[in-house]
Design a protein that fits this description.
The chain is an alpha+beta fold. Helices cover 52% and strands 22% of the residues.
Length: 132
Amino acid sequence: MDELKELQLYVSQLEEENFRLKNSIKALKNNNKSMLQGLTKLQSYVHKLKRDLHYNNYWVSLLIQDDEESKPYLISMTDSAPHLKDAMEIIERGRNNYRVLSAWVDVFDKKNAKVTIFHECYVNVVGKVERK
C-alpha cells in the first residue's frame, strides 16, 4: 500500500511540475513576442535615423588612374562624411595617394535624389593632372 501512495505522490508531483513548465513556456512565448515587437520597432527607428543621416551627409567620389597610361576608374565612398570639411579632406587625401582626374561631393535630398554640391577636375587642357 505504501508503494501505491508513493507512486500517486510521484505522479502528482510530475503533474504539478508539468503544469509549472507549461506556464513557464507560455510566459516565455509572451516575453519573446514582446521582445520581438520591441526589436522590430528599434530596427525601424535605426533605419529611419540612418536614412535621415544620409540625407545630411556628404558622399565623395574620385575618378582615378594608376598611372598616365592606365584606364581611369571610379572610387565611390561606401560611407558618408558628416561635414563638408571632412569630405574635402577625403578628396585631398585621395589626391595625395592617387592620380586623381576629378573629384566630386554629392548629397541626397528627401526624395533620395542625388545632388552634386562640389565638382572639380584636375586635368588641364593638354591632359596633364595639375596639383595645386
